[in-house]
Specification:
It is a single chain. By secondary structure, the protein is of the alpha/beta class. It has one domain: Aldolase class I (TIM Barrel), CATH 3.20.20. It has helices at about 20-25, 60-75, 105-115, 145-165, 175-185, 210-215, 235-245, 260-270, 280-290, 300-310, 320-330; strands at about 35-40, 45-50, 55-60, 80-85, 120-125, 165-170, 195-200, 250-255, 275-280, 315-320. An eight-stranded parallel beta barrel has the order 1-4-5-6-7-8-9-10, surrounded by nine helices. Helix 4 links the parallel strand 5 (about 120-125) and strand 6 (about 165-170). Helix 2 (about 60-75) packs across helix 3. The chain is globular and about 70 Å long. The chain binds ligand PBG. Ligand PBG binds near residues 135, 171, 211 and 280. Belongs to the ALAD family. Its EC number is 4.2.1.24.
């Protein structure tokens, strides 16, 4: 095929007017692409702003229900819930994760009751419940043990599913946990509960504000490099994704988001599976800080980064900007 070239070919032609740009847009961002992570705290009528995440608060269950209504009205299909567990409910074995009346389960039931049409995604990992802030159980040397941790994660998943969670999202990075959780969900009558695997989750410096939000930051000793991935690796991410798909994941997630768009694109290229990205707390904080010093227009920065995930191949994005972005898109 002979390609036209300049001057017959002018790529600026289709960019010349708004209607033409709209017609030629290859990707589009809509509110239904957005999953909104929210932090739950104890009490009634409580809003606790999170200093390292300006504009994001923890909400008590009653106020969380209002957030769920707002999300639904803005066209957001799904919420991701994270609990801020009080220190006295934390323990070395994270047993509070198995309590059917813990903060998570209480929030899930309240939202399902009041806003039944919205999806609820729940994080599976023990860090919101452990006294040491690691995602699993420790041996004497302080190593996070794999198989014994999986047994607790299964219990945590079943506890969340019984409370009404729609999507179980294991974020712990233990080997073999997706298959084990899938099997348990099938056996316990939760065949329609989905698994979105945090398949390629990196040991990232961008999680700091999140750890403040769930109250594990101050508790965490050391790092999570013995289970979360090395930012240097991409082949390994593809192996992680392949395993999670083989074990029964309905969708996979790449996390963090923007610094790992290359991973998203490669996963999408290689596998026929829905891919999601988590634009994490540090990314949110970075955008807010940039806007606050006038380095760019906040709304434009937010929408451009979210659209980038669609272009890279994502079906959707977890983002703390979800409500704001959905309202901008709906306006
Ligand atoms: C828990 C978990 C983390 C995040 C989501 N689930 C933190 C971590 O692994 O330390 C981070 C999300 C964010 O930074 O917004 N396993």
């Amino acid at each position: 095929m002979t390609q036209a070239s300049y001057p017959a070919l002018r790529l600026r032609r289709t960019r010349a007017s708004a209607w033409s740009r709209a017609m030629h847009a290859e990707n589009r961002l809509t509110p239904s692409d957005l999953i909104w992570p929210l932090f739950v705290t104890e009490g009634q009528g409580v809003e606790e702003p999170i200093k390292s995440l300006p504009g994001v608060s923890r909400w008590s269950v009653d106020l969380m229900v209002q957030r769920a209504r707002e999300a639904q009205a803005a066209g957001i299909p799904c919420l991701a819930l994270f609990p801020n567990t009080q220190p006295e409910r934390r323990s070395d074995d994270g047993a509070e994760a198995l309590n059917p009346d813990n903060l998570m389960c209480t929030a899930i039931r309240a939202i399902k009751d009041a806003v039944p049409g919205i999806g609820i995604l729940t994080d599976v990992a023990l860090d919101p419940y452990t006294a040491h802030g690691q995602d699993g159980l420790l041996d004497e040397a302080g190593y996070v043990v794999n198989d014994a941790t999986i047994d607790v994660l299964i219990g945590q998943s079943l506890n969340q599913a019984a409370a009404g969670a729609d999507i179980i999202a294991p974020s712990d990075m233990m080997d073999g946990r997706v298959g084990a959780i899938r099997e348990a969900l099938e056996e316990e009558g939760h065949a329609n509960v989905q698994i979105m695997a945090y398949a390629a989750k990196y040991a990232s410096a961008f999680y700091g504000p999140f750890r403040d939000a769930v109250g594990s930051g101050g508790l965490l000793k050391g790092n999570k490099k013995s289970y979360q991935m090395d930012p240097a690796n991409s082949q390994e991410a593809l192996r992680e994704v392949a395993l999670d798909i083989a074990e029964g994941a309905d969708s996979v997630m790449v996390k963090p988001g923007l610094p790992y768009l290359d991973i998203i694109a490669r996963v999408k290229d290689r596998f026929e599976v829905p891919v999601f990205a988590y634009q994490v707390s540090g990314e949110y904080a970075m955008l807010e800080a940039a806007a606050a010093v006038g380095a760019g227009d906040r709304d434009a920065l937010v929408l451009e980064t979210l659209l980038a995930f669609k272009r890279a191949g994502c079906s959707g994005v977890l983002t703390y900007h979800a409500l704001h972005a959905a309202r901008l898109l709906g306006a």
